[in-house]
Amino acid sequence: MKIDVFAHVWLPEFKKRMLMLDDDLLTKYPFARHPDLDNLALRREHAQSDVRQIVSYTNTNPEDYMAGKMAALLVRKANEGLLETVKANDDLFYGAVAMLALNNIDESLNILEDTVLAHKEMLGVQLFTRHLGKSVADEAFRPIISTCAKLGIPIWLHPVFDERKPDNNIVFSWEYEQSQAMLQLVQAGYFQEFPDLTIIVHHAGAMAPYFAGRIEHILPKELAADFKKFYVDTALLGNSKALELAIDYFGVEHVLFGTDAPLGIAPAGATKEIIAAIEQLPLSSQDKEAIFTTNIERLVRRKGC
Asked: Residues in domain Amidohydrolase-related (predicted)?
């Protein structure tokens, strides 16, 4: 069994509510039109029998449209739907990652306690590279990150566009945003303060492996070392050479099988391509098993699952 740590859904009820808030969402995010995001019958048809997914919502968040109290209520409803879906389809899904509303920090802290910790199917929490126009590393969000560290709750880090930029695109922009957020988290000292903080970065750590030399020689020694404390997935649409570079930089024990399914390659994502890319790597069968399964099992056990 392979565990896909970074797959996405946009469940029908939450999708309907978000489209009521912004009927232009499908124009802003064309990838959100993918039928497998909200059609579980179609997703089951496309599923691979040896893969179970950890699912999180696509990057649409009520905090961008509603005041804190209402945003938190909608997030709770969305998390309830996610939890119910995972429980009802445990042959497809290994677990889920909760959403927060960061314009309501107090209620988000409650969600960490009464939703993430309270349900074994909730394996962590998803944060985005930017929230409410601020970096995820902003001091305003420190209570969330520090609480996740103290409670042993892994953070899934997903990119979003920086709306200050006029030329955002999903080829390069998200990888820049991901890399920049990693740098900001490191420079904010989170790994220094919380050595066991677990952050899983989408898209194999983005630019970090390629620019490892710059990280090593420009940052202070202790911050350069902190960069290697991130965990990364394998969502590169294949590309064995790039995966090899990521593994060389972060280490096998910090690399997790993730595909971004159902997005990336029609009709249902790059699962087959990414599995093939991992199988082609010059690694032992034990190392490949670590990437496919045992690394993530070890991480989620840290919250008692």
From this structure: 3-301
Work out the number of other CB atoms within 10 angstroms of the CB of residue 6.
Answer: 27
Q: Are 161 and 168 in contact (CB under 8 A)?
A: yes
Rg of the Cα atoms in the chain: 18
In three-state secondary structure terms, 222 is helix
Q: What pLDDT shows up at residue 109?
A: 98
The strands making up 155-158's β-sheet, listed across from edge to edge, are 2-9, 51-57, 93-98, 122-128, 155-158, 199-201, 231-233, 255-256
Domain that holds residue 109: 2-301
| Predicted local distance difference test score (pLDDT) of residue 301 | 74
pTM: 0.96
Residue 6, amino acid: F
Please give the C-alpha separations between residue 127 and each of 39, 185, 301, in angstroms, as whole numbers. Answer: 24, 12, 20
Strands 134-135 and 130-131: antiparallel
Specify the DSSP class assigned to residue 294: I
The C-alpha atoms of residue 23 and residue 156 are separated, in whole angstroms, by 27
